[in-house]
Amino acid sequence: MNKVMKFFLGIISLGLLTSIFLAISIYNFGWNTKAEKSQCVIILGCSVYGETPSPFLKKRIEEGYRLHKEGVVDYIIPSGGQGPGENISEAEAMKRYLLNKGVKEELIIKEDLSTSTMENLQECKKIMEEKGFEKAIIVSNKFHLKRASLMAKEVGIDGSYSGVFVEEYKSKEIYYFFREILALAKFYILKN
């Protein structure tokens, strides 16, 4: 076997080992992390179909609502701007959903300026500082929590995490899990 072939096999092996390490890291964090009592829960945005939360977003909202209803948090920060094909911001869709569930409006603090997870957390950190909140629970899909936790640390949020898994869309969950391996690798390299 020539040196070029060995080099390429080495690169492929390294890439494979790195991918396995990242996949284990994503899985362990997402499936083993626990929410801790905090002043607020940050629900990270996801697609809205017109004005209706997508199944992934609906599951995230339900988890944030559960934490609020059980007294683990007082305030809910729905976070997400308006994306293509969305008639309202993700935060507004979440707020409407929560109001329909009976959450008092004064306990919902909408963040609708962000267009990415990093921006979600940066904007939520500003809200936390304005309100004097020291700790937050961050809610997203389980596959997304590891990267979200690194971003939260980057912006200075003292957070715990609560993940959801949308059983009815298991194939999409698996697809996004594998896509997250690349996203996490990109974050470690570029810090965004």
UniProtKB/TrEMBL annotation:
<dbReference type="Pfam" id="PF02698">
    <property type="entry name" value="DUF218"/>
</dbReference>
<feature type="domain" description="DUF218">
    <location>
        <begin position="40"/>
        <end position="161"/>
    </location>
</feature>
<dbReference type="InterPro" id="IPR051599">
    <property type="entry name" value="Cell_Envelope_Assoc"/>
</dbReference>
<protein>
    <submittedName>
        <fullName>YdcF family protein</fullName>
    </submittedName>
</protein>
<dbReference type="InterPro" id="IPR014729">
    <property type="entry name" value="Rossmann-like_a/b/a_fold"/>
</dbReference>
<dbReference type="InterPro" id="IPR003848">
    <property type="entry name" value="DUF218"/>
</dbReference>
